[in-house]
Design a protein that fits this description.
Blueprint lengths: L1 E7 L5 H13 L2 E4 L7 H5 L16 E7 L2 E2 L2 E2 L1 H10 L6 E5 L14 H12 L3 E6 L14 H6 L10 H13 L1
The protein binds flavin mononucleotide.
Length: 176
């Protein structure tokens, strides 16, 4: 039995960055979710066309780390398709999101807290942890509440510093 695989979906690259970093730092396998139809706008509106079959056999892994964004306060269609298709093969799931909503806003309409509750419900006891890495963590205090800046910010080696590194290190320590 293998330990962990990271499965991710990313449109603008921040969740790809985070997923790749976790996999590389921890020596885990990694695979991306590819929607059957690449119609980004329709996906963002919540329309689901399903996802392509994964190459990995998730039954071989003790744990899946699922990584992806939040749009409009929703558990997004490609990630939901993944859970629906592979729920029976998953033994334990950790959800990680680089999202726009800060910790302060997590329980508001577009906050990550509501999405975390939905995932926990779908996984029926198999979701052991949900962790948010809001992009606001890499912004200076005077930019954290400017929606346009938050939406345009992407994680990269250049800005993955300070508070986000501390939270990330704490997170990966818990995985080991
Ligand atoms: C159309 C759209 C809607 C979004 N809605 C939310 C939201 O409701 N809550 C949130 O926390 N972040 C929201 N975000 C921010 C994304 O989750 C964030 O930018 C994320 O890092 C993008 O991930 P990616 O670069 O991997 O695609 C939204 C972004 C877009 C483009």
């Amino acid at each position: 039995m293998k330990s962990t695989i990271v499965i991710y979906y990313s449109n603008n690259g921040s969740n790809k960055y985070l997923a790749t970093k976790i996999a590389r730092d921890m020596g885990y396998d990694i695979e991306k979710i590819s929607p059957r139809i690449k119609a980004q706008l329709l996906l963002m509106m919540g329309m689901s066309f399903g996802i392509k079959k994964l190459k990995a056999d998730l039954k071989e892994y003790e744990r899946v780390i699922l990584c992806g964004p939040i749009w409009m306060g929703k558990f997004i269609a490609p990630l939901k398709s993944f859970v629906n298709n592979y729920n029976n093969d998953i033994k334990e799931l950790i959800f990680v999101s680089c999202c726009g909503s800060s910790y302060k806003m997590k329980d508001k309409k577009f906050g990550h807290g509501l999405v975390f509750k939905e995932i926990e419900g779908l996984l029926n006891g198999k979701c052991s942890q949900c962790e948010a890495f809001p992009v606001t963590l890499v912004l200076p205090d005077d930019k954290k509440e400017i929606p346009d800046t938050v939406m345009k910010t992407r994680l990269s080696d250049d800005n993955f510093k300070g508070e986000i590194i501390d939270r990330y290190n704490e997170f990966v320590k818990g995985l080991a």
